[in-house]
Prior knowledge:
Elements: H1 15-30, E1 40-44, H2 51-61, E2 67-71, H3 72-86, H4 89-97, E3 102-106, H5 113-128, E4 132-137, H6 155-164, E5 165-169, E6 190-193, E7 202-206, E8 209-213, E9 215-217, E10 220-224, H7 225-229, H8 235-244, E11 247-253, H9 261-277, E12 280-285, H10 289-292, H11 302-309, E13 313-316
Parallel strand pairs: 1-4, 1-5, 2-3, 3-4, 6-12, 6-13, 10-11, 11-12
Antiparallel strand pairs: 7-8, 9-10
Helix pairs in contact: 1-2, 3-4, 5-6, 8-9, 9-11
Amino acid sequence: MGEGVVQTxxxxxxxxxxxxxxxxxxxxxxxxxRWRRPRGLYLCGGPGRGKTMLMDRFFAAVPSGRKRRFxxxxxxxxxxxxxHEYGGIDAAADALxxxxxxLCFDEFHVHDAGDARLVARLLDTLFSRxxxxxxxxxxxxxxxxxxxxxxxxxxxxxxxxxEHLDVLSVNGPxxxxxxxxxxxxFAAGRYTVGVxxxxxxxxxxxxxxxxxARKAENGDLTVDFAELCGIPISAADILELAGRFHRWTLCxxxxxxxxxxxxxxxxxxxxxxLYDADLELSLYAAVPPTELxxxxxxxxxxxRTLSRLGELSVERQQEGAATSG
Length: 325
């Protein structure tokens, strides 16, 4: 039935959210009709605007068993693995989707030209099967694959998205994550300005190498930022680690403008994966959250990461003291 669906408390919806909820309700009411499948919906807007909440409420309310929900990182990793296993995108899609009539993607985005070609083939497959697609994204369709050197190759696919999906902006000044109120799972973690005192050595296999962690036992992983984000691992590798470890502590996180962009992108992947799976994350950083990502423009989606880290309680160690991780 998909993955990552989180039960959400009742809240008062703002104008954009109510418009989206009404359109999603219309889609739910038309699903299952043989000849007139409903058009899909593309919800776009900044982080913390409730897009995932709206999609998850909609998904839970659809009575059909022919529905699937994925975080796009997870689906894309599994699709790539399936293509290698089954020899083609159609067979891989069959294995992932079965007879689905509704597919929901959370955090849809395209930044890499190589990924763009596969996304184009995937969307052609979905549209040819007349699957109703509902996606959330921080980007309107026209801003997908934004690099001006490669954007033109994705323009036909953007046209296909606009042909099959209605686009609705869910935007506004309020980042609802900043309001707090959730203290389990991901949000049970903390952001500490200071030093992680957990000491030890544990070797963790990942991506055909051994990562050196400080602790790796009983579902807990404590690892330095450089050890995790400084090695060439993919979002799929992080997904595999998240299946083994359910409570994460990331130590010695530096100001992000002092490290390479690919290191920062791995932090983006990590936070996306842990947030979607609602797994606890704590960080020990050199600077407070407001100073962590001073140069957001260097890395796509870092603004979403910083918004999600804003759900963590912030602590500052007293001079000469440290908190055990």
